Every structure is written in C-alpha cells, then in structure tokens.
Description:
By secondary structure, the chain is mainly alpha-helical. The protein folds into two domains: 1-111, Farnesyl Diphosphate Synthase, CATH 1.10.600.10; 128-296, Farnesyl Diphosphate Synthase, CATH 1.10.600. The protein has helices spanning 2-12, 17-33, 38-41, 46-69, 74-89, 96-108, 112-127, 134-156, 162-181, 183-188, 196-201, 206-210, 218-236, 245-267, 271-274, 281-295.
Amino acid sequence: MSEVWERSEQATGTPTLEFKEAERYCQQMARREAKNFYWGFISLPADQRVAIYALYDFARQVDDEADSAGSPHLETSLERHRQRARDCARGKWSDPVTMVLARAVQRYAIPESDLLELIDGVQMDLTTARYAKWADLEGYCRLVASTIGRMCVRIFGFEDPAALVRADQLGIALQLTNILRDVKEDGAMGRIYLPEEDLERFGITQGGLLTAEPGPGWEAMVAFEAGRARDYFASGLGVLELIPRRPAACVQTMAGIYQGILAMIEREPRLPLRRRASLSSTAKLALVLRSWARRG
C-alpha cells in the first residue's frame, strides 16, 4: 500500500483518495475521543492538525487496546504497537492511523524513540499501580505525556531546542493534573498514582484513599500537588514563546483547559473523590477565543 501511495503522489503531486480517507478517519477519531485536546487542535494549520490527529489517535489506540488485552496478552499487544511505531519510522503503514502518522514522522522528523517510549509508558500504566516517590511518578509522566509534548513541538516547528525542554515540563503539568482529576476512577481500578511519600507526609492511608475517605490531610496534600503542577505549568508554558503563533494558540487552549480543571480541584479538593472535574463546552470555547485573541 505504501508503494502505491508514494508512486501516486510523485506522479500527481497530491495524495491519493485513500490517503484523504485516512485523514478523515483520523479527524473523526480525534473528534470523538479527544474531549479536551480537540478544542486546541482546531486552531492549527491543516497539515499540522492532521498530523496531530494521527499522533493522538495512535496514543489512544495503544492505551485502549493494551487496557482491553488483559495481562495474558499484554506483551503481544504492546509489541504489535511497537512494530507499528517502527514501521512508521521507516515510512510504512498498515492502517489509516499509521498511514497518516508515517507521513508525519517523516515530514517532521519525529524520533522513533519517542513513539517507543510512549508505549513503554502505557506498559507502566498497566503493570505499576503504586509509585513510592515523586521521582518515580515523574518518570512515568515523562513517558506518557512529555513524549507526546515533544513530538507535538516537532510538528509545530521550533528553532530553539529549549522548546523541547519546555514541552517536556508542560507534559508533566498536564499529566499531574490528570492524576488529581482521576483519583476516583483510578481508585476503582486499584490504582494510586499519587506518590506514597506524599500520602505518608499528609497522613493519608492507601486504604482510606481507595474508599474515598482519605482523612483530614487530604486538602493539604491536594494543595501541595496542585502547587507542584502549577510550577511545571509556569515553566512549561514558556514553550509558547518558542513555537509559531497558531500552534501557540493550540497549546495555550489545551493548557488553559487543564489549568481550569486544576483550579476547580483547588477550590473543591474533595471533588475528585466524587467525580471527574471538567469544564463546560462554553468555558472551553471561551478559552479558544481568548487564546486566538492573544496569539492573533
């Protein structure tokens, strides 16, 4: 299939109908699955937007399929996705998502290692349910979130390598916000991502957290973790000055949504024990408009 597409593009100067169909597939999947990120995607130039759709879709497929595979088939499932990543790095594909992603990997010089590290992070997500120290959790965040941030920046374009460092830090901020937001859902699966050293520091037992009764130290611990996330946001958002205007509006929108969720949790620390915090569509649209105005 790849050779057919390559010959057709060389001959006509435009992608074949099959490639356009693959692009539409990626867009539809991203629109369906990316509840928060899609609001940022829409501000990107068309080529970058399609590349980001494919990258997001690939990450979602890895996470969803590995989660449904179960322990006996986990290694086989993840190895299949590692092979998909290796194929993309060599301009090969086997499905609509990798068809688009392979082109993006070639066009934007996305390292194969970043795709593989993302899969390593998903594997940790399924095999590790506790993190003893912040350094351990930070390493996990770098695999599942910072890798995506760095790949996005390569798609957006940059001149200063500091953009990759800033994207790495922003990824940690987003993932730590996710962890605070999803305490109830993760607890239902027996997972506690908050570092054990922090739980102990604030007098919170794992059993109490899993039963949504963490005790009086919960508010102080949420404030501590939220402060940590805000420090990473402060550093990571420096990427806005290192990438072009339209991608900066995309990043500002996505980060703004997560900062809004973090603010909700700070105002009501026990909210994540009851349900997932989220912003309304109206609030997200307002963030999109403000981001466009600032970067216009």
